Structures are given as structure tokens and as C-alpha cells.
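The following block was generated as part of the benchmark described in Methods. Ligand: adenosine-5'-monophosphate-propyl ester.
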Amino acid sequence: MTDQTTVTEAQIAVHWQEEEKFHPHHSFIAQANMTDESIYTRFGLDNFPDCYREYADLLTWDKLWHTILDTSEAPTWTWFKGGMLNVSVNCVDRHLALHRNKAAFIWVPELEDEPLVTLTYQELYARVNEMAAVLRDECGVKSGDRVTIHMPMVPELPITMLACARLGAVHSVVFGGFSGHACGQRVSDSGSKVLVVMDAYYRNGGLIDHKEKADEAVKTAKEEGVNVEHVLVWQRYKDQYHSQTKMHSSRDHFVADLLTKHRSAIVPPVSMPAEAPLFLMYTSGTTGRPKGCQHSSGGYLSYAAGTSKFVQDIHPTDVYWCMADIGWITGHSYIVYGPLALAATSILYEGVPGYPDSGRPWRIAERLGVNIFHTAPTTIRMLRKAGPDEPLKYNIHFKHMTTVGEPIEPEVWRWYYFTVGKGKAAIVDTYWQTETGGFLCSTMPAIHPMKPGSAGPGMPGIHPIIFDDDGHEIPAGTPKAGNMCIRNPWPGAFQTIYGDRDRFVKTYYAKFNKDPKSKDWRDWPYFTGDAAVAASDGYYRILGRVDDVINVAGHRLGTKELESACLLVEEVAEAAVVPVNDEIKGKMPEIYLALKPGYKKSKAIEDKVVKSIEVSIGKIARPRHVWIVSDMPKTRSGKIMRRVLASLSNGRDVGDVTTLANPEVVEEIRQMVQGAK
Ligand code: PRX
């Protein structure tokens, strides 16, 4: 499993030097939600799990819980047992008394001359109820049913999510950029009978046909034995249909038509147990099949709300913009659920950050008075490269900025801090995962200084530990990378891989568990799959994955998923995918192929492979390069040496390859790859 990058990757990253720390500006500290250092004592292991009462108290419960943490099914943790609540009530209804006419969402279309759309909490309430009525009465959706949502960044996306939550149904949002086939696999895995999509959306100035993917998704799901009964289609423009595909008469319905029957409907919220699943979010793992991470209602929402309050420092008066996509976990926790639970105003942007130019994000921030800004290093790198002085041209004042999803180079961090944040914004580098529901490591922005390139200490109530491969702790301050783990459960942690508890236990909890029968949480450290080092000040630096996952532009791609897509091409005998460093995207996949006998290397085959990846996964998985080789470097037992290929792709020395079955092929590939660069 670890033949790919681990060691070299870790070594490179460890060589980043220790960085000077920056202290938060006094104006930030003066207004911050959390300035009390005793939070770390309150959330110490001595007071675990009771400390998480503070998070539960951020929610409105229909019935209060009686047991804070039930470990009887370890390592399946049940938080706030006995508690009942409805998530849409917590995100919408309960804010009406104080914030009825406050903007919940402001939607910014990609085209600059189209009008913005503002949804107040009252309007959001009305629209969530109407959509809940459509799902319940037109599609028969009830609590526990799964609904797949494949949509772009439009207000109708969170409306649909909250409508599901109102009914106690489980949503599974698939990133809009995924292909129809990839969506179909997720529809089938979750057993969704209802698929909600949109006809079209803007990307880079062009209106993209999105509904065509729905037809492909339904086809794929059907091949896998799942019959989608209803496809609900939102429209980008009222009364227009911007797709080449036809509407199937009994299966497809325009949401707008169905809504006419449910104007002003009020749907009573279904009170759900704290541990009822709220959503599935698929992510890539070490095998070909994506895994559906199942998140709870009470635990998840409390964690999203608590971290949004303490780390994102969101107050109801703030204008908060997280420029992620709701189709990823960041969007779920920090565009929709966390901010709404706190009655924030959250910006939704339809398009790409660089359209029509790299000043766009700053124009949006200026126009709307955004004061909290949240994005990924990939975007920061791109904006820095394309418009290094652009932020200086606009009247923008962020009090707080976030970076998430990948390590950020100290150079890039400094640009973010000085040029975008004008040296006044507190920056948090938040480390977490789809599985963890919310932040694992970050500085508390008004308590800790910032250290470029480091995520900071564990969150209050999150107690990280780094193990070497033999399960020995590597203490903070040791310049040696190890496996990043968390000692204790926390409310935001996912509950299982949907439909595959064994894989859940094996992937995340078995590695450092010594007693599989134990019901004591102390025996079940959570394994993140990342390599990390802890400095003596307790700040963690995350070095990258130790498994076969590539983090491209902050999004996870499984190498096995890519390799399977390559093998669909008739001429391909073997495929190996390796991560290569990329100036903007952090990492990108590069592909090595060996052809079946009788086929000659050609551009046409390379193109077929790229096409196959786009169809199977989506354009986000496009490789940087496809190399067709005469043979793969292999061990004597026949295992492809991805580590050697990764070294070649990254311009590194391959080390000693004499023990390989075919060392001569390494030199041949080196000349081809490094000679061409
Ligand atoms: O490798 C870590 C990296 O992104 C992975 C999680 O990806 P995903 O589930 O798609 O969630 C992304 C958004 C939370 C992690 O295993 N990662 C995430 N945040 C950071 C990071 N690497 C370094 N620094 C971070 N702040």
C-alpha cells in the first residue's frame, strides 16, 4: 500500500524550515467568539466526553439527550443518545424570531451582469418547506430514504438539502463536476430512488448542459440494479430548458411545475434521533469503489456549529464567504450547516474564481462586504499567479481567512496574509477530512499565533497522536514523520461507510487497535491516512497521504479509480497512476500505461485514456501526462513499482533499482519522461 510516495513525500515536506509565527491583530481578538484559553482545559482528555456538552448546547433539541457518548458498538460511536432534533429547524426555523429578514444566502451568478439573488431566512424557510412538500408528496420521500443531489452552486442546492433534512431523509450530494457515470455509481450505492439535478449552469462563461449527466447516471444505476423513479430538474432560467436531452415523460419533472401545487406549503419537521444519518458524502479510497461516508444529525451539526463559531469566528453580523463547492465536505459543513446553524449570511458563488479575471473574488467581496473568506491553497496559488496585485485594487477588509484541504506553501501563505488579508486578517489553516465532519487541527484564531505551512494544534477536544508503523508514539518535536491519528472520538466523526461497516473498521480503526473486542474508546485511535510531523510547540504539519489517494487541487482521487478507468480502454494491458507535483494544483495524476501485445503506442490511445477518465470520473481527474511505456518497472513478485514511477515523474532520483525484475526499463522510462521535461 505504501509503495507510492510516503517516504520521499514526507522527507521533502519535512525540509520546509520552521517558520516565524504571526500574532493575530488586536482588532480581531477584541471581537472574537473564543478568547478563553481555558477551553483547552475544559476539553482535555480528563473531561472527555462530557466536554462536548458545550457543542450540544449550541443546538435546539426537541428532546434532550441522556447519554453523551455510547460506546457499546465500538468503534461505532453514538453521540447525544436519547436526543431528538430536526436539522432544518436548527438551521432555519429557529432563526426566524430574531433574523427573519436577514440574508441567509446571497447567490452570485458567474455572469457579472446577472442580478444577485438574496434569500432571507424567511424566504429560505418558505422554499425549504415547499421543496419538502414536493419530495414528500410527489416522490414519496420519507425519513431514512436516500436522495441523490447532483447540482451546481445555486441556492436550490441547499434548499433541496434542507428539504431532505426536514423530512429526515438522507441526502447524498455529488459534486457537479463528476461525470454522469460517477454520479450513477453513487446513486446505486446509496439506493436512491430520487435524483435531483439542474438543467444547466455557468462555468468559465459558458452555459453547460448538466441534465445530460442525469440520463447517464440513471443508466449506470440501472445497470447496477437500482431503478431511479424520479428525476427532479431545477431550471437555471425560469421557463427555459437548457439541455439537449429530452425530459422522460413519466420519470423527469421540472421542480418548478411541481412547486405550483405546493405554494406556501408548510411541512412539519420530522423529529429525528441524534444518531439518525443526515447525509452521505462519497470520497475516494484505496480501492476502486468510492465510499459513502455517513454523517449523523445531532453530532455532526453540533460539531459543524461549534467549529464555525470558534474557529471560523462567525457572528450573525458577519458576511461569510466560503469559496468551496457544496459538493464537497467543506461546502456541507462550512457553507451550509455550520453557518446556517449560527444564523450567518453565507455567500454562494456559481462560478470559477478566475472568471472573467482574477479580480473577480475581490470584486464580489467588496460589493457584498465580505469579512470572512475561506478557500483552498489551489485557489490561492492560482489567484496569486494570475493577479498578484489584484487584491490591492479593491476595498476589501477581511477579519478572518481560512485555508483548507492541502498543505499551503509558506510563500503562498505570506501572500494570502499580507496582500489579501492586509496583515490584519487572522488566518486559520484547517486540517480535516470528509470523514471527520469538521476541523481536526487548527489554531484558535484569537488564542494562538499562526505559523505558515502548519495547521496548528489539535482542536479543543481532539487529541492527535502520531504513531510509527509499529504503533509507537512519535513525540512532538521529533523530526520524523508518522501516521496521524486521533486518540478519541468526537461528535463530527462519520458513523460508518454506508453499507460496509467492515471496511469502515478496517480502514480507520483496525490499524492501531490492540483489542478488537474492546468497548473502551481509548483502544480505538482513529487513523487519518495522512503522514504528519508535530513540532515541539504542538503544531502539526500535514505531509500528505500514506495511502493510494492523490489530493488534486484539494480534492481526493483514488489511484485505483483512475487505473480502472484506464483499463477500460481496449489496448491497455496495465496502468499505474502516480501523483506529480504541480505548481497550482498541488498534485496531479500522471499515468503510465503498458499496452497489450500487438498494439503500438499512439496519441490516439493516449486520448482514449483521457476520455475514459473524463467519462468514468469527470474532468477534475484529467491527468497531467500519459506515458506509454514498453514495460512497467516491477518487483520480482510482479508488483508495479509506483514509487519508482513517481520519482521519475517528479524529477527525482529513483534510488537503487537493481533488485527489480527489469531494472533496464527504468532508464528507458527516465529518458522518455525526464528527457521530455
Ligand atoms: O491529506 C489531507 C488533506 O486532504 C485530505 C482530506 O481530503 P478531503 O476528504 O477531500 O477533505 C478536504 C477538505 C477537508 C486529508 O486527508 N488535507 C486537508 N486539509 C489539509 C490537508 N493537508 C494539509 N493541510 C490541510 N489543512
